[in-house]
Description:
The protein has four helices and eight strands. The chain has helices spanning 5-12, 57-64, 142-146, 149-159, and strands at 16-22, 31-37, 45-53, 81-82, 86-94, 106-110, 125-129, 133-135. 17% of the residues lie in helices and 24% in strands. It has 193 residues and is an alpha+beta fold.
Amino acid sequence: MQQSDNNKNNSEKGKTMKAVRQHQFGGPEVLVYEDAPVPELNKGEVRVKVKAIGLNPPDWYLREGYKMLPPEWQPKVPFPIILGTDISGTIEAVADDVEEFCVGDEVYSMVRFPSYGPSQAYAEYVNVHVSELALKPAGIDHIHSAGAPMSLLTAWQFMIEVGHDEQNPLQPDKHIPVPLEGKTVLINGAVVA
């Protein structure tokens, strides 16, 4: 018997997980490993039990308070927050309206990026909208798949012209693709699955 989203959410209230959170801007010393509420599952989402995360520059930009941005661009952040975008793990729960994925699927994602807000990947569990989720390739372990999303997007943005209409919220200048015709490109650390 399936529970409705409301019943599922009511049964999840009060559950805790371990997470790395911050309560103020600063250096690595502001990161605290502590208990946090398990996020409530919303329509269109799955809950992923995180096996590995990727660390990326936007994580430390937010941790420090986006110091490199002009003050008018610096977002207001509701502390405490959980950083991180790139994850790999196993689906633990699905919302009633989700048909694309099942409990037990191994997946990876770049969660809620681009955005100024925290994506909440440095945690035991993270909710991900199905539009931001993909099945993890069988030939790649969780550690490598968690390291892929943002690094692959970065390479794609600098080598492919299509898609450059989207402004990076962390940079004032628009991405300009590198002209590749007649050039050799070194792909460092590529993994063949």
